[in-house]
Each structure stands twice: as structure tokens, then as C-alpha cells.
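Interim report to the steering committee. The following record documents the input for Methyltransferase domain-containing protein (238 residues).
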Amino acid sequence: MTVGRRPGVALLGTAALERSAVVANNAMNRERQLAGVNSYARELGFNPVDVLTDRLTGAATAGWLDLCCGTGRALIQAAGELRRVGLTERTTLVGVDLVDAFGPAPTPPANLRLVCASVATWAPDRPFDLITCLHGLHYVGDKLAVLASAADWLTPEGRFVADLDLSSIRLADGRPAGRRLTALLRDAGFGYDSRRRRISRTGRGEVRLPYRLLGADDRAGPNYTGQPAVHSHHAEER
């Protein structure tokens, strides 16, 4: 059976969506640590600090940007590890989240910045060697725009990793964008793991996808995580 757009659904623009209780109160990333059981290292399969230190073997500086970072706990812990090995001045850590609920850093490190802002409008002032977004895209309206921005913010050898349920990206009639979108993303330089619902890429690139955002549905219900999520509806431009 073809699943279409819910009858009478009112699509929200970015500003209205960010006031939604589903978006503002989500707790997916609130307490995730750098390493351990509930951690970035476990989710990603690698420790972000290792990526930075590896990068520093051939570069003067290295940076990690975490979109939808929650409390910023993992970044705060990473800053502590980098300080202990004397790499504070050579690293930049930036976390961005819509909700200003950041955890306290025992000693505010010079290499850490936690920003309360919308990922739909915020932009960095430097490229990054690692950009992550763990479960944050579930709550973003224009997910495709965030993917394009992240690609543009990478260094030439930088790495981007994010959780993305492609079934949450819908066409105007509510049908999932499906295989055509998957193929276009791969043509644009992204890899997609459908089993883990994980999107990634290596290296900066200019990404243009033939979709225009119509609005977002914050009443789409739970996704594969069991938490309420947001569907994005797009008009396909051929």
C-alpha cells in the first residue's frame, strides 16, 4: 500500500517548527558522552578525539563541529582530553544546538565554543575535519539543506557522519522520496548505510539537490528510534 500525506496535515515553516514541542524538547542527545556505553564513540564506531589527533600528524590544526549537540557533554569531555595532552591550542571544538541547555565546563577551555542557534541558519567561520550530527536531523525541517551545508563546511579531507532516516524525506503528496533521492545523494558524494540509517561523506563539495522544501510535519509520530520525529515535505524540481 502506498503511504501518502496525512489528510489535513498542516506543514510548518522553519520558525514554527523550531517552536514545536517535538523539536525543542527532544532528548536524543542530551546526555551522550564522548566514550563508554551511551557515547559518540559507540554510536560512530570511532572516537572523535582520535580523528583530531590523527589529523594533527599532518596539519597544524584540527576541528570538530557537532550539530544538534545537546548539552555538549561529549565536546566538553573532548576538550578535557585534548587539554591533558597539550593540544588545546591546535584544536577547535564547536557545538550547535537549538536549546540553550549546555553543561558546565569545569575550566572553560579556549578551544571549545557552544552555540545556541538553529542549524538552519547558523554558519561557521572555518572548515572542519569532522562534522557529526547524531540523531539531530530527525528534528530538522530542511534536512537536505543541512547536508549541503555540512558538505560545504568540510576540509578537503574532512569527514561528515549523521543519522538520517531517508523515509522521513517526503514528496509533496507524502510519499517517501525513495530510491531516486538515495541515488542523487550518492551521485553528490554521500554514502548511505540503509541498515544503520547513517549518511556520510569525505571531503568538501558543493551539493545541489533538485528538491524545494514545502514544510515539515511535526506530527509524523515515532521513527525507528521510538521517539517522535519530523517529516520533511519537498517539491521535486526536474
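The chain has one domain: 14-236. The committee is asked to note this result when reviewing the revised timeline.
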